Structure formats: C-alpha cells, structure tokens
Amino acid sequence: MLLSSLLLAASVLAQEPALFDFAELEQLSKELPAEGPLRAKFDKLLNTPILYTPAAPSKPRLPQHQTLGETLRVAEWNVERGMNYDLVRRSLSSPDELLAEVNKLWVLPPETLDAIRADANILSQSDILILNELDLGMTRTDYRDVTADLSRDLGMYAAYGVEFVEVDPLYLGLEQLHAPVIADDERFLAEQKVDREKYKGLHGSAILSRFPLQNVRIFRFTPCYDWFAKEKDEISQLEKGKRLSAEHLFLERLHREVRQGGRIALIADVPFSQSPTGFITLVNAHLENKCLPACRQKQMKELLENISTVTHPLILSGDLNTTNSDGAPMSIRRELMKRVRNPHFWAKQGLAWFTPISLPRSFLLPTNYFKNYNDPTAKNIPLVAANPEAPLFSLARDFKFADGATFDFGGDKDRSIEGRGGNLSNSNERARKGFTTTFHFQRDFKGAIGRMRLDWFFVKPPYSESSQAEEAPHAFRPHFGRTLAELNRSVEGQISDHHPIVVDIPVERRAVASASGYLVAMRAVAVLTLAGFALAAQAPAPSVEVFPAELAISFGTASGNAVLYAGAVLFIDEAQPAGSFAVSAAQVKEMSVTNEELTVVLTNPVKDRSGERNRVSFRFTTPAHLQKVQEFLKTGAGSTPAASAVESAAEFAFDAAEKKLIGGDSKGRLIATPTQLAYEAVNKAAASRRWEYKEIKSFKRPNPYKVEIETFDDKKTTLDLLGTPMDNDKFRILVDRITSSRVKR
Question: What is the pLDDT of residues 295-353, one digit of tens each?
Fold first, then answer.
C-alpha cells in the first residue's frame, strides 16, 4: 500500500491497523454495517492506537527553573488538521526557522518578532505534546499522515487515535460544491478533486513524547452527537429546500460534515525515573462541540471514572470545547479550508463572495455565544447568571482518585504567569478578566466574537493534599501555565484557529514546605541582614529548602520555618517576623541533639524575640529534617557563594525592553559586568541606567524572560528579556555578585 510505504520511510510503525480502501470508504458513506468484515475492520481501526517510533529519537529537554530545578514542559495544541504543517513543525522545533519564514511573509515590528521568538523558545522546549485534530490521508492536508511526519521531524515517539472516518460525499469527490461566483467555479471544482489511491479519510488526536510511550489505549466517549445520521438528515432537508437562495444553500453545505466515529480520549503512560511511581500518565481528551454543555459534562465524568485508579502523576489536557453552547462558532474562511487543496487562496476568495448584507452569515454563532466566554469556570447561577459550562470544572475540581489525590486547581501568584492568581491559574494562564482565550478567528472584530477558552490542563500530583510529603509539595504540580498567542498569530490568518498552551511540571523533589510557608520565608529574607549576612531579597538560590520548625524561647516555643539558604539557616518566626534571625556555618561552635531537639552554640550572638543569646535550640517535625539542618551546618553546605561565580570576570548581556505608561517604552541591552549591572537603551538614552551590585536591595526573576531590580533607595526597574532567557547559571552568578558585594558593604 502506497501510504504504508511512505509512513515506513518516515518512521518505524510499531502497530498499524489496516486502513480503508476507497471502495470501503464509499460504502461507509452510505451506511456502517452492523456486522461483517467491514464492521470488524472499522471497530479495530477506531479502537487500536497507531504507534510510531522515530529513527533518531531526540533527547528530553527538561527545562531548568531557578528554584524548582528540572521541569517537564507539556504543550497542548489543536493544530487544525495540520493544514499549516511546515509552520507547525517550525513552531515545535526551531525558533530560528519559524522567524525566518515569518520574515518572508510580512514585516513585523521588532518587539512583535521578539515576542514570537520568546513563545517559540518556550514551545520548542516541550517534552510532551498533546495534539488535537490531525489528519491522515486527507485531501486538504495533501494526504499527509501528520502524526508520522511530526514523529519523524521532531524525533519523538508518537501515538495516534482515530476519532472519525471522513466520508462526506464532498470529501470523497462524490459531490461537488459550486462557487457562488461563476467566474471562480471552474478552478474551485478542480481544487476539490480527490486522489482515490491516497485518500484514507482519517481524523484524530495524537500524543508525542521524547520518552517512550507505553500502555497506549483509546477511550471512546458515549456520543453526544451522531455525526453520520444527523449530518445525513441535513442533506435531506437541503434537498427539500428548493426555495433556499443559492447563497444559503452554499453556506449550509459548506458547514456539513458526514463522518463515522466519535470523540475520544487517547491515554498513554511514559516511564519517568523522577516519578515516585516510575511513570507519568498522559490523557488527551477531545470533547464534543455539537452538543449542550450537559453532555460534555457526562463525557468528562465517564473519562474520570475510567482513569480513577491511576496512581501515577497524571496530566489531562486537550480541546474540551467549552463554548457554553451547543456548537463552536465557524467561519466561511475556516470551513472553506477543509474542502480544497489550496486552502489559503480560497479562504481569502470566499470572503469576496458575499455582499455586505450577507456578510454576517460568514460567522455562524451558536446560541448564547457571548455569555461567559472569557471564563467558562465562572460560577453558575441559574436564571441570574447562568454558566452551563461551570459544572464540568466543578466535576474535575471535586473528583477524587482512588489514591486520594485530586487535580491541582491552585491559583498561587508565585506559580502563575504575571502573578495572576485564581482557580487553575497555575496550570492555565489567566487574563485581567477570566482566562486568556485559545480559540481565535482571524476576523474577531477586536474580540467581540470569535474568542473563547477551549483548551485546558488538569494536573494530578501523585499524592493527596492531606498525605502530601512536606519536603516536596511542588513536585509534579503545575506551574506557569501560559498561552502562546503571539506565536500563533505570527502569520496572516494564524497558524491554527487554536493557540498552543504550555505548563511546567517540576520533577525534582526539592524541599519547600508549602506555598504559603515559602512565601512567609521569602518575605522575611528581605529583612534578614543579621550575623554579617546580606541576602538578595526574594531571589532564592536553586538550593533553597524550607522545613517547619519550633524555636525554644523563654516560657515556651516559637513556631516558624527553618530556611536553608545562601549558606545560612534562617529561622523565620511566623508570629513575630522581627524575631527572625540567621545562623551561618561559620558561627557554629558546637552542636548536640537531645530528645529530638537540635541545640547550636554560636561564636556570635543572635537576636530572637527573647533577646540576644549564643545558644539556640530547634525542634523539627521529622528526624530527617533535623538531620538535614545538622548536616548543613556541620559541612557549611553552600556557606559562601562560589568564588568562581562571584569573582568571575565574565561579562554577559541580554536584549531587553522596559515598558512605561509615562514616558514611553525603551529597548536596549541588559549588561552584567563583574562590578555592575547596566541597562543601555538604544532608542532612548534617558532610559539608560547603571547599578553597582552593592546598591541592589532586591533582584528577582519571576520567570526566565523578566527581571525586577530594586535599589536601597526604593527605585524599581522591570525589564523584559527579549529572545534569549536568563538561565539558572547567569541568575546565580548575579545573585552571588550581589550577595558578595553586600557582605563587603
């Protein structure tokens, strides 16, 4: 079979159920037999994943985060059948290639190109791809197996699950759609011709991974819409509608899709050594769009019941079609792109076929489209402020797995993009109001229509909230979910009608007691300059660890946290932060442990809420925490910034920009030398400034593409890094230089 030969050349197929020939597809366009060889072949194809092994597997990226360590980055993208395959491939693999192609297509401002590159850098570091709407053997995508090509080009293991067999008479070439304008009709008909040898008519979902995929299975949802019988019925109604205008008839036939099959979830396990169970489970869900929200909720419920016994960390993602109605909006432009071999030409041409009076019909909007489309998670108040999509999110939030774990619906500002908290903001980027939208038409009338949040992440850590290990609560929890809109808008008409989204999952079991305790500790760091220690406020080194602790004081104890940071043990007094203090390894004269209490005798006194003293005693919640602190003080782990880092004469720089409401934006370079940090604006000299390291009170890196600088005279500067992010090594060098200079100060 020609297609099989092409696929084998692209990558090794570990498993390939037999595909349909054209005669079988013609038969399926008329009916699905209740039994017999064709029915058996159909059932096997729709329930057997197609697996791909790349000839040259790529190595996992596991991007580093300054405080969280290694992270697993997961991306989700509805790639709209793969119609813009080359742009999709470049977006997922090569920022340079994508920018080169964008520059060929149109001229964009430098700041827009920088934003596109930043998005592409983030997306290309993904180790897991959850993809929806991929074609195999369709005319509109030049008969590609989109999953096989991505597996080959990205060097990733892949699995593909078939949702639908596309048997619409228009797709098969058994019917033809005439252009409303006679002058365009001949070419339009030619573009619809079908190669019967290459046409395989499959449409589905895929998972791609830099780790091998195991135990891959397809879960088929109970149908909420009969894509065969209902769409066939529309044909019958149209044939009766002789009085319909030619324009109306064209629109209705364009909208129709006759298909066999239904929505699926594709599920796979990946072996992952850092996981406490040895695996991570991936779930790619695609819920129905042609149904009321209540039926999507039923589909979500049956999926959750199916995966309820999974004990591994689990990432559920996909296009959930949360439209708040019984269908996603469609545009003539996008519908035309499904039908022909030269989609971009006809997408533009189609808009010229309609008069100003009929143009509003180019957007076919479902009922109640405008309600809640910025935030389908908003509370549902029947009759007053109805949000029919809300119960789906409530179902996911309240669902408890057999091991007691739940999905992380957290909204911590320190784990969210732009510091925007709120439900699910750790895993899905929020906007000023609601969520950033992921579904866009090119013509969205400045957001009045054609924008919705349809794509989502739900992340289950491998433990329940009540049993979670105190020393690593951030491990396998979602962080910094974001929407990569600039990348998707980098070409005219967008790469896809959906924006890609990503989330980072920390995989190192680093000691951070809790999000709230961590924030208390970091706030207190800002005022701790005791015992000759100067600390870069809120700029934690990668080795920061936090343990719950009690300090023995006169007539009782003080509860707080012991923070191992920058060569010192900091005790953070929760009730009286002014009573916090730092103990360096160099101050320790002797240590002893009695009745699970660590007593430290110091060469220099510290001052807690009881006053100055040379002897302090701590009690910890576990023996392991006590031993960790004792070993830290005994060995002086990290007791001084590495000389090689502090004294490094290396000079490095980043392209940077500063945004200001008053005075205008500037753009230039952030330059780090051994003695100072400088921002040199190239387009606005007055915006340039320099800081000696000893002048810097606080140096933060909220994310690798942003830094915040605050001096001791309370002047603050925020810079966006363009293109190249600040990696962990550069950030640590700067923190060490600041710390070192302030100790000398």
Answer: 999 999 999 999 999 999 999 999 999 987 665 445 555 555 555 555 555 555 554 45
Identity of the residue numbered 102? V
Same domain, 608 and 499: no
As for how many domains the chain has, the answer is 3
Please, are residues 330 and 369 in contact by the beta-carbon 8 Å criterion?
A: no
> In this predicted model, what pLDDT tens digit does every residue of 558-605 receive, in sequence order?
888 888 766 678 887 777 766 778 887 778 888 988 877 899 988 878
Only one residue has tokens 């036939």, namely 253
Residues 393, 411: Cα–Cα separation, whole Å: 14
Helices (H), 399-460: none
CA 699, CA 708: separation in Å to the nearest integer? 6
CATH number of 717's domain: 2.30.29.30
In 3D space, the residue among 560, 514, 563, 522 whose CA is nearest the CA of residue 539 turns out to be 522
pTM of the model: 0.66
> Are 430 and 394 contained in the same domain?
yes
- 8 Å CB contact between 631 and 598: no
Helix 293-307 crosses helix 390-398 at what angle (to 10 degrees)?
20
Angstrom distance (rounded) from CA 229 to CA 163: 16
- Is residue 270 within 8 A of residue 209, CB to CB? The reply is yes
What order of strands is seen across the sheet that includes strand 314-319?
214-220, 264-271, 279-285, 314-319, 455-460
Q: How far apart are CA 299 and CA 91, in angstroms?
A: 31
Q: Which residues contact 54 (CB under 8 A, 6 or more apart)?
A: 11, 12, 151, 152, 154, 155, 156, 157, 158
Owning domain of residue 706: 644-744
| Residue 593 CB contacts under 8 Å (≥ 6 apart), including other chains | 599, 626, 630
Query: What would the pLDDT profile of 387-408 be if each residue is shown by its tens digit?
Result: 889 999 999 999 999 989 999 9
Residue among 456, 290, 481, 284 nearest 375 (CA): 456
Question: Which DSSP string do the residues of 164-232 spell out, in sequence order?
Answer: EEE--HHHHTSS-PPPSSHHHHHHHHHHT---TTT---EEEEEEEESS--EEEEEEEPPPSS-TTHHHH
CB 658 within 8 A of CB 681: yes
